[in-house]
Specification:
Elements lengths: L12 H23 L2 H8 L3 H7 L3 H14 L3 H13 L3 H18 L2 H12 L2 H27 L8 H21 L10 H16 L11
Helix pairs in contact: 1-2, 1-4, 1-7, 2-3, 4-8, 5-6, 6-9, 6-10, 7-8, 9-10
C-alpha cells in the first residue's frame, strides 16, 4: 500500500505570501536573481510552483515584492525621524552617528538584503539597482542639503557634501561587509558602538572648521 502523504497545514493568504517572500529573499540573497529559480523557491517553501504564481504573476514581480518587503520590514521611518531630529537641533555628530548606526544595524539585523543588492550590481540587474537608488537618493539629498546649510553658516568646512556623506557611509559599510559578509572578526574590545563613534569622530575632526588659537598679550 502506498504511503499516505501528509497534507501541509493550510496558511492564510497573507501568511503564505510572507512565507514566499522570506524564502525568495533567502534564495535571491544566495544566488541572485539570475541564479534563483521559482522552482527552487517553491521547493524551499514546500509548495508547488503554481502557488508562487498564484501570489506573484512572474519571477520579476516576486523579486520586486522582495525588494519592497525588505524596506517595509525595516525601521526606515523611525530612522528618518531620528536623523531629522538631529537636523533640527543642528547635531552634526549625532547625524553622522545615526547614519553609521543605521547602516551597521541593517547588516546585523539581516544581511540578506545587502547580498541581494550586491548581486544586482554584479548582474547589472536594472530593477534591483533602480530600487536601491529610489530608496537611497531621497535620504542622500536630505543629508546633502543639510550639510550645505551647515557649510553656509560656517559650521562645517566646504568640502563636497556628497563626499562627506560617502566618507561616513563608506567606512561603516566596509566594516559591516568585512565582519558580516566576509567573516572577518572585529577586535575583541571593539563594539559596534565604539566603531560607530570612531567613524563619526574621524569625519567630524576633518570637517569641523579649524579653530585658530586666540593670541594672548604679554
Amino acid at each position: 500500500m502506498p504511503e499516505a502523504r501528509t497534507q501541509p497545514a493550510r496558511m492564510s493568504a497573507s501568511d503564505r505570501r510572507q512565507q514566499l517572500l522570506e524564502t525568495a529573499l533567502d534564495l535571491f540573497a544566495r544566488k541572485g536573481f539570475e541564479g534563483a529559480t521559482t522552482k527552487e523557491i517553491a521547493a524551499a517553501a514546500g509548495v508547488t510552483e503554481a502557488m508562487i504564481f498564484r501570489h506573484f504573476p512572474s519571477k520579476l514581480a516576486l523579486y520586486k515584492a522582495v525588494l519592497d518587503y525588505t524596506v517595509h520590514a525595516s525601521e526606515h521611518e523611525n530612522w528618518l525621524a531620528e536623523i531629522k531630529a538631529c537636523m533640527e537641533r543642528s547635531d552634526d555628530a549625532g547625524l553622522l552617528r545615526a547614519l553609521a548606526a543605521n547602516i551597521l544595524r541593517s547588516y546585523r539585523r539581516d544581511p540578506r538584503f545587502e547580498r541581494v543588492v550586491l548581486f544586482a550590481a554584479l548582474e547589472g540587474h536594472e530593477l534591483g539597482l533602480a530600487h536601491r537608488h529610489q530608496v537611497a537618493m531621497p535620504v542622500f539629498e536630505l543629508l546633502r542639503d543639510y550639510i550645505v546649510r551647515r557649510q553656509r553658516r560656517g559650521a562645517l568646512r566646504g568640502y563636497n557634501p556628497g563626499v562627506i556623506i560617502e566618507a561616513i557611509a563608506g567606512m561603516t559599510q566596509h566594516y559591516a561587509m568585512m565582519t558580516q559578509l566576509f567573516g572577518y572578526s572585529a577586535p575583541d574590545d571593539l563594539t559596534d558602538e565604539k566603531a560607530i563613534e570612531t567613524f563619526t569622530q574621524i569625519v567630524m575632526n576633518g570637517i569641523r572648521p579649524a579653530v585658530t588659537p586666540k593670541k594672548t598679550g604679554k
